[in-house]
Amino acid sequence: MFQSFFPKPRWFFLSAILWIGLNIALWYTGGKSAGEWFGFPQGYADKPLAIGLSRFWSPAFVWFYIWFVLATLIFAVFWSVVARHPWQRWSIWGSALILFNIWFNVQVSVAINAWYGPFWDMIQKMLSSGGGPISNIYQNMLTFLLIAMVSVTMIMLNAFFVSHYVFRWRTAMNQYYIDHWPKLHTVEGASQRVQEDTMRFATIVEELCVSLVRAVMVLIAFLPILFELSSHVPVLALIGEIKYSLVWAAIGWSLFGTVLLMVVGIKLPGLQFNNQKVEAAYRKELVYGEDDIARAQPATLKELFERVRVNYYRLYFHYAYFNLVSTWYMQLDNLFGLFILSPSIAAGTMTLGLINQILNVFGNVRDSFQYLISSWKTIIELLSIHKRLKAFESILNTKN
């Protein structure tokens, strides 16, 4: 699954995590302002960023772009020396480009959040003081539109690239399995493993990894802001006064939902795996029946389909209460932010701009902590596919 696309997967991923961690540590312990040594303006790293597109080509951003490219180049050269791989350009540079796009879109979210406060405060001031220049509204709307258009363009370009990235990974797996087909073709559902599961595995792993990396980056970007904004919400509903209230509220609510859905959906991965097994057995018998009249007899097909029916009914039952609980939680989640802010709103200590800004930051941080909640169904499907491909590949170690 992985060695077909990545050089020495275990060491590759371990080294990638360590390299990313080292670069993050260096960046936040002096690297962020190290551009001054190379001619960047004095104090550029601490200068407030503009609320608009110009922030993305400010010295702070340009220095990050240079740092990212150099870090990726060093990593790529290291692996080209340690273990060359035919898919190395895609597995390293492709992964790096996806990582950069995730970071960039998180920064777009930060820019939009910075836009929220001043814009809605301006709206509130106009409403309470008899109006104001309409040009100010149009100018702020244009600023938002330009940021949003850049974001949408990057998202579409990234989606196009990711499609090719995933298909290259599928191609690598396909070639790997075809090269070992003489050993693998006797496995039940072998054709499905090569034709369908390879694409689904690459697609789901990419989606989950992107979501996880984005969740981590959102936390890195927005948690400091949430710590700062917590000073405006000293009291939580039902709890009372607490330091860093918004941070604790986001963590507590997200952990509650994560544990709840993990417990409720614990049976689903095994059922999904069994579902593919019984479907493959039924489909295989039908295929044999196309060429051999002695196969696919009614009694045999009835027995095989009965296994399909029983497993599907069990799946329907377990998904019914899982979906019910998850839907209840998400509906409550829509109101949780306002519920948390309700004591401060009722006390009249907040402005409209501050409310919108806090809700946006709080929502981003909460969504990051809820990674497992939003991805649980996808994780269930991935576990099922991984089990099938793992069993499929195990033949290579047991047969000569």
UniProtKB/TrEMBL annotation:
Primary location: membrane
InterPro entries: ABC1_TM_sf, ABC_transporter_sub-D, SbmA_BacA
Entries under SUPFAM superfamilies matching the protein: ABC transporter transmembrane region (SSF90123)
GO MF annotation list: ATP binding; peptide transmembrane transporter activity
GO annotation (BP), single: peptide transport
Native species: Snodgrassella alvi
NCBIfam families membership: PRK11098.1, PRK12369.1
Highest taxon of source: Bacteria
Topology versus the membrane: Multi-pass membrane protein
GO cellular component: plasma membrane
TM annotation in the entry: 12-30, 62-82, 94-117, 137-167, 208-227, 247-268, 312-330, 336-359
Subcellular compartments: Cell membrane
Keywords: Membrane, Transmembrane, Transmembrane helix, Transport
Name recorded for this polypeptide: Microcin B17 transporter
